[in-house]
Structure formats: structure tokens, C-alpha cells
Design a protein that fits this description.
CATH architecture of the largest domain: Up-down Bundle
GO cellular component, one term: plasma membrane
Number of domains: 2
Radius of gyration: 21 Å
Pfam families: MFS_1
Protein name: Transporter
CATH class of the largest domain: Mainly Alpha
CATH topology of the largest domain: Growth Hormone, Chain: A
Shape: globular
Membrane topology: Multi-pass membrane protein
Order of helices and strands: HHHHHHHHHHHHHH
Oligomer: single chain
GO molecular function, one term: transmembrane transporter activity
Number of strands: 0
CATH superfamily of the largest domain: MFS general substrate transporter like domains
Structural class: mainly alpha
Strand content: under 5%
Length: 404
């Protein structure tokens, strides 16, 4: 296998889906704000999204290991498309409400989790394992362009035309992603394995199967260690980003427009990271690429804590996002290489739960520490990433000991 037609189909479907995600990122909160001026209800949309993704992660992991992943990607995207087209129709006809908006967001969160997990799990069957870093890097680059550069401005432009316009666009893009995914290659061997498993074991408990994934993760030193580092890194991320807008206003003297520019510039670091990760890994190996990237995260957060210059802060944030992308690509590729195919969905789901819990804890701690000084959570994040880097150097093995 190489990064050939099958990967090209997955990449294309992901690109369409990512563009819809970018539209949703800006459009859904704006729609909520157009229906109510209660900040709790507007913010509640993001809270609902996070809670749904947390609670569905484990059962979706089981589903990804039970069912043909190709069909999951197809159906998750088609169903998202149909749900959003129906929501857009209610907006167009003036029949929508906050309840429908919230229900639509819950559907999007559930099906997004399904499509994302299935895409990560199917990738090792589409490319050579030695090219997983490159494939994951291409997917990450496309996601950054769609989510950060293309989706938000397009969403703002469309919603200025009509409230339903970006929602129609989202629905169309997700439906198109599902149709493109129809061209993913069918793997008869996996069909046979799923059929044999169902025949031998009969109906099985979702709970027990989810526990199998958790147990595998807990007993694998490298993959389990990476999951814990990921959870800790998520804490560090949200320590800063939960209060970043306040830090930008008070410490850097930025306004709403310049803050948006700061974030856009920082995303360029992630784009660079997605392009160089494979070369870095080939030169340094997983151990030092991961440890070095996490150390870069620590240095960038430490520098940001001391910075009052918006240009320097932008460069430091770009370095931070670069580290985050390199870390994410390497940890994902290692998981894809080391986890048995039959467990990829469940181990991925358990890893996602740890990451989401880390985000929630980091957000809480960022707000709590920020009441004393906005520098405190940023400086604390730097310390967290130092710990992550040390753990990575201790846990990640030399390249020669990592078996495919």
C-alpha cells in the first residue's frame, strides 16, 4: 500500500467535512446569538458540544470496531448533511428555535465523533505504516486550512447574506463528503472478520467491549503513556487558551479584530508543523520529535507569559501551535501503528475521553488561576509542558524497539 487512491478519497472527504466544521465553528454561535441575548444560552452551545463528545466517545469506539468503518464514514457524513439541511429549511421558513439549534448541535457532535474515530481507524488500511506520519500530516494541513482560514470567513460572509445560508452550505458539504466516501475501497477481509466475530461471540455488551479498550490502553506502556501525556497536554492547552482573549486584551493591548489576526497568524505555525513532521520524525525518531515538540510548547508558553509585544506573542503562539500539530501527528501515527486493528476504535475512544477530560480540567484551572493574574495560567501551562516533555523522553521508546 502507498498513499494512493484510497487515501485520496479519504483526504477529499475529510477536506469537505473540515470545511463544514469551519463553517459551523463561526455560524452556530452566531445563530444562537441571533435567537437570544442570554450569554449562558449562547455559551451553552459549546458546552453541549463538549459534553456530547465526551459521553459518546467510548460507545462510538465500540461501534467503530464492530461495524465496517467505510460505512460509518459514509453514513455519519450523509446523516450530518441531512440533519443540517433540515435545520436550514426550518431557518429559511422561520420555524426554527433554540431547541432545534441545540438538537442539531448534539447530532453534529455525535456524528462528528463517529466520522473522526472511523477515519483515524481506517487510515492504516489505506497507506503503508511507514507513511502514516506523512498521511496524517496532509490531513492535519487540510484541516487547519479549512478550520482556521477558509471556514470562519466564509461562514461570516454567508450568514451576512441569510441566516440559513451557512447551514445549507454545511449540510451540502457534509452530504458531499459522504458521497465522496462511497469511493473508499471495500476490504473483504475485515468484512469476514466482523462476520466471524459476530457468529462466534453473538451479542456482546457495549460496556464490556469498551472496558476491553480501556484495559488494553492501561496495560500498554507506550500507547497508554502517550494517552496520559495527551491528557496532561490538554490541561496545559486550556490553561492558556481558556483565558487567551483576556490576556490579549489586557497584556497585549489587542482589540477584537487584532485578536482574530493573532489567532490566524498562530495557525500558520500549525500549517508549517503539518508539513515538516514526517521529515522531523525520519531524522530524529519518534522519541525526540515528540519530546522536542513538547519542550517547544513549554518554551513558547514561558515566553508568552513574559511577553507584552503582540508581534512576539504571535510568533510564540505560532510556535506553540506548531508543537501541538507535530505532537498530535506523531502520537496518532504511533497509536495507528501499535494498536491492533480490531481495537483501534475503542483505544481511540478511550484516548479521546482522557483528552476531553484534560480540556475540561484545564479550562476550569485557567479560569480559577486567572482570577489572581492572567500570567499565572500561562506560566503554569509552561510547567505542564516541561513535565510532558520529560515524560515523553522517558516513555517513548527508541525507533528500533517500536514494532509494527
Amino acid at each position: 500500500m502507498t498513499t494512493g487512491r484510497g487515501f485520496g478519497v479519504l483526504w477529499s472527504a475529510n477536506a469537505l467535512s473540515n470545511l463544514a466544521d469551519g463553517l459551523a465553528f463561526i455560524s452556530m454561535p452566531l445563530l444562537a446569538a441571533s435567537m437570544t441575548d442570554d450569554p449562558r444560552i449562547v455559551a451553552g452551545l459549546a458546552t453541549l458540544y463538549a459534553i456530547v463528545r465526551l459521553f459518546v466517545a467510548l460507545p462510538i469506539g465500540v461501534l467503530v470496531d464492530r461495524i465496517d468503518r467505510r460505512l460509518l464514514i459514509i453514513n455519519a457524513n450523509l446523516l450530518r448533511g441531512l440533519a443540517l439541511l433540515a435545520f436550514a429549511l426550518t431557518l429559511h421558513l422561520g420555524l426554527s428555535s433554540l431547541v432545534i439549534l441545540y438538537l442539531s448541535m448534539a447530532v453534529v457532535a455525535t456524528l462528528e465523533s463517529t466520522a473522526d474515530n472511523a477515519a483515524v481507524a481506517i487510515l492504516p488500511s489505506l497507506v503503508d505504516r511507514g507513511r502514516l506520519d506523512s498521511a496524517n500530516g496532509r490531513i492535519a494541513a487540510t484541516q487547519l486550512v479549512a478550520d482556521e482560514f477558509a471556514g470562519p470567513p466564509l461562514g461570516g460572509f454567508l450568514i451576512a447574506i441569510a441566516a440559513a445560508a451557512p447551514v445549507f452550505a454545511m449540510g451540502g458539504l457534509w452530504a458531499a463528503a459522504g458521497l465522496v466516501a462511497l469511493a473508499l475501497p471495500v476490504h473483504p477481509r475485515r468484512h469476514n472478520q466482523l462476520g466471524v466475530a459476530a457468529t462466534l461471540h453473538g451479542p456482546r455488551s457495549v460496556y464490556k467491549e469498551a472496558l476491553e479498550g480501556i484495559a488494553w490502553l492501561a496495560h500498554h506502556r507506550l500507547v497508554g503513556g502517550l494517552a496520559l501525556i495527551g491528557a496532561l497536554a490538554s490541561v496545559g492547552y486550556m490553561l492558556t487558551f481558556s483565558i487567551l482573549v483576556l490576556f490579549a486584551w489586557e497584556k497585549l493591548g489587542l482589540n477584537e479584530t487584532s485578536y482574530g489576526l493573532l489567532l490566524a497568524c498562530s495557525a500558520l505555525g500549525g500549517l508549517l508543523g503539518s508539513l515538516i513532521t514526517s521529515k522531523l520524525r525520519n531524522k530524529l525518531g519518534y522519541r525526540w520529535t515528540i519530546a522536542g515538540s513538547l519542550l517547544l510548547g513549554a518554551l513558547s508558553m514561558g515566553g508568552l507569559a513574559m511577553s507584552t509585544n503582540p508581534i512576539i506573542a504571535g510568533a510564540l503562539l505560532a510556535a506553540y501551535i506548531l508543537h501541538a500539530v507535530v505532537w498530535n501527528i506523531c502520537s496518532t501515527s504511533l497509536r495507528q501503528r501499535l494498536v491492533p486493528d480490531a481495537m483501534l476504535g475503542r483505544v481511540g475512544g478511550a484516548t479521546r475521553v482522557l483528552g476531553l477530560l484534560g480540556l475540561a480540567l484545564g479550562s476550569f484551572l485557567g479560569g480559577f488561576l486567572g482570577t489572581t493574574s492572567l500570567v499565572t495560567p500561562v506560566a503554569t501551562a509552561a510547567g505542564v509542558f516541561v513535565v510532558c516533555s520529560i515524560l515523553a523522553a522517558l516513555i517513548v521508546q527508541d525507533e528500533s524497539t517500536i514494532s509494527d
